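Form 7-S
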Amino acid sequence: MMRWTAVVVAVAMMLGGGCASLAFRNPFAAKRGPEPTVLPPQEWAALKRENAQRLAGEGIPPREGATAPPRPTGGEIQQGLEFFKFVFYKFPKQTLDFYMGRTPGRYARMMEDDKSPDLRRTGILKLVTDYEFARKDPYTKRYWQIAQGDPDYLVRVAAIRALDRARMPTVTPIAIRALDDPNPLLRLEAAKALANVPDEKSVPALIKHMDPIIEQRAEGGRLEQVQETRDVRVASADALRNFPTREVAKALVDVLRDKEFETSWQARKSLVLMTGHDYKYDQARWREYLASAGNPFGN
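Output:
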């Protein structure tokens, strides 16, 4: 009896511990063929739609609440829900924010504090994050000035991020220049901004910053080779998704076998969006497709 009990326990452990291939694999099932390399039209259209929404800034939430109860549309249930949301959440939150001094006026004064870079940075980010009107002029004009003239690099990073979040085209010349800044945080924020506000003039710089080793000007104007950070390389590969040309596609293919997998993964993701095909990390097949297809970026 003990022997049969041990056998039953052993079989149960095998089935529950990773031998599912023995228990559930069907030996008579047809073998799977090669995975498809062409995306279904609906899937490719969904990728393009998601990218368009990202470029438009959709998904960036507006400031919660209003000074008066909203006028909801829809049925009575929806109206009731909106009313209770305003009475029990939005209005109390606004009142608490005002009482605690969390107001746009305070953040605007922090943004202009000439003695504290931390306050300037916090003021910028709070304004652009919490208030939809702070993503328009005259606020964006002030972010543009700060992004170029503030002596503290973290404040300039915050200003570039604010222009990016507002999807302001004025950020692109600043971002292109910042891609060659010695500070990696400025380069990263610049690449992220160019990923959301594309500019064809940025393509050579973005391709350059996908490389693991880049040339930069050091003190005295001399050129020196430095290692580019992984985050900047990934952000550059992401930004290049918006430029469906053979030059860009070839540059993305070149990093598909990179030692840093994050860069390879992002390059593949950009190629899939651009072409509607997926040859994974097979550089030879990607190059063959780009060379043979009449329009590798068409439908």
